[in-house]
TrEMBL record:
Catalysed reactions listed for this entry: N-{alpha-Glc-(1->3)-alpha-Man-(1->2)-alpha-Man-(1->2)-alpha-Man-(1->3)-[alpha-Man-(1->2)-alpha-Man-(1->3)-[alpha-Man-(1->2)-alpha-Man-(1->6)]-alpha-Man-(1->6)]-beta-Man-(1->4)-beta-GlcNAc-(1->4)-beta-GlcNAc}-L-asparaginyl-[protein] + H2O = alpha-D-glucosyl-(1->3)-D-mannopyranose + N(4)-{alpha-D-Man-(1->2)-alpha-D-Man-(1->3)-[alpha-D-Man-(1->2)-alpha-D-Man-(1->3)-[alpha-D-Man-(1->2)-alpha-D-Man-(1->6)]-alpha-D-Man-(1->6)]-beta-D-Man-(1->4)-beta-D-GlaNAc-(1->4)-beta-D-GlcNAc}-L-asparaginyl-[protein] (N-glucan mannose isomer 8A1,2,3B1,2)
Descriptive protein name: Glycoprotein endo-alpha-1,2-mannosidase
UniProt cross-references to Pfam families, sorted A to Z: Glyco_hydro_99
Lineage, opening ranks: Eukaryota, Metazoa, Chordata, Craniata, Vertebrata
GO cellular component, one term: Golgi membrane
Primary gene name: Manea
Organism field: Rhadina sibilatrix
Catalytic activity, EC: 3.2.1.130
Protein family: Belongs to the glycosyl hydrolase 99 family.
Amino acid sequence: ILNYDIMARFRRRTCIILLLFILFICSIMMALKTLRPDRAGFGDPFGLGLLPELQQRTVLLESKQNSLNMAQGDTVTRVSNLHSIAVNTMKASMSPVKKLEEELSSPNYNFHIFYYTWYGNPQFDGKYIHWNHPLLPHWDPKIANNYPKGRHNPPEDIGANFYPELGSYSSKDPTVIEAHMKQMRSASTGVIVLSWYPPGMADENGEPTDDLVPVVLDYAHKYNLKVTFHIEPYKDRDDRSMYHNVKYIIDRYGSHPAFYRHKTSTGRLLPMFYVYDSYVTIPEIWANLLTVSGSQSIRNTPYDALFIALLVEERHKHDIHRSGFDGMYTYFATNGFSYGSSHHNWASLKAFCDSNNLMFIPSVGPGYIDTSIRPWNNHNTRNRVNGKYYETAFSAALLVRPEIISITSFNEWHEGTQIEKAVPKRTGQVVYLDYKPHKPNVYLELTLKWSEKYRKEQEQWLM
């Protein structure tokens, strides 16, 4: 009987303790649920106000009839109509933007992001542009014979390993441009580095895009973003053509409120130009343009600016210095692909730049995969590891305390470096990569997280 009483008391005590423990756990969970989530996490989009995919596509469909009219007639009429549509669209949505301004994090003008406007579709351009990218053959015919040839066939089959939430869009579509500006602003980037060819010129798979610059500038201004130019390696680019093209850009776009000017350590406000594949031109030619004594010198003229060269190999740093450039960037989102894109070399590059009065602008990216257009290039693929690769690149960049960080890229879909929203998609022949288990906006949120972290750390560097 005594043993029975002892066991009964023990059971009652155990039940009471267990009940109290369960109540304690429940109270903890309720308390945690009331906490505000970290807006740099992987939850719902915060304050951005981006249209849901269905609503976005409704707006796109409503614009298509106008776009078909734009595809006809002469170029001047098309550009005028495009600008008119863009202006009307902007006026209609100015009041929501003011509300967004209160909800969004302020733009970080030390975060520069590479942006491409070379995409087209039949509704706006009369045909697909860039989404139907050809499969590029390997330079060794023996290797090339082992891989498929031909072109992609949009809209189901596009030249990318991921699939955009906006579909195979046209860069001329004002609703697409606006959606892009919202995404970039939500990520707290501040400066759009716009891929640019001179009027009438384009890359070998595209069409001229200079006519789009005014529309991009207008929408950027609407979201308090700035625009600078990524000068591509157009045919016969040299000191003379560069002088004329820099003059053209500043004369034509320099008075726009969204045109980016960088405040130097001496207090000057100067335009900035990133120069892709700058190493293709010998230093002596660049020195004609970029040194005070050069025969085509742009220095101390109304067209003076900050010129940022692409560094690929280590020896390029000396060529960049001799050429008269103001700084260097690394562009590629493939850690280990080149000397410049290898994170462990950034400290020595920053030290070289500091000792030679140059800017060092490391380029970070979320990953790299271009096997949709270079099927033989698996060895350069860099897995995103659910965002960890991107965060590792940001961490490496912050370690060298750069004045500016560049991001490769917002929408270079061919090389899989985009942070633009992507969605899961499967067709009969293709299964596209996606951002799961996270949502389509995960890389925008990660960019915001690191923009805020950069701002806080930069405040400490300056103390």
